[in-house]
Amino acid sequence: MLKVQAFTFNPFSENTYVVYNDQGDGIIFDPGTYTAYDEQELTNFMTSNGITPRYLINTHCHIDHIFGNTYVAEKYQLELYAHMNEVKILEMGTTSSTMYGLQYYPSVKIVNFIDEKDMIILGKDQLQILFTPGHSPGSLSFYNAEAGFVISGDVLFQGSIGRSDLPGGDHETLLASIRTQLFTLPEHTVVYSGHGPATDIGTEKRFNPFFR
Predict the structure, then answer these.
(1) 19: domain range?
(2) pLDDT by residue (tens digit) across 30-49?
(3) Total count of domains within the chain
């Protein structure tokens, strides 16, 4: 069964996730490593747990989720996976970092385009890909039924939802993505968001103020 380890990195308090199995195969989602300390924390976890990352995946490509793309790609010889609609968002990384006054080493390019027709296979386990745009035009979420979790990026948070006022965002599209792609998952499904604590589908269906 897949396990999930969360890290919180960079000035935006972004959540980076490592999903891994008992055989030591892993996926790094949204590496937000910004400092050398961040990079060391991530690699120490991989090394101490004997995890070999097989995939580098962005749920979407806003600046806070891509700070560590190049570091991870070069450290572990990985290609970047993301939705094709995120190419322009990724290319905005330098402009975004300048706007926030942050240092940024340009990300590697997306080599492998994935969407809802694909499946991420990790050993005997698999992650279903859900197309969840609205916060970003190519936002993807990743669901594993057996372990009962979804990596949602910045689509759904505990008691909130992602911003829709950034380039490529759309509020009604975001709400529709959550209703049709996330709220249709089993209520016990744990939601690992791009910021803040984990929640679950049932709690958000009942109490999230954007859906009352």
Answers:
(1) 3-211
(2) 999 999 999 999 999 999 99
(3) 1
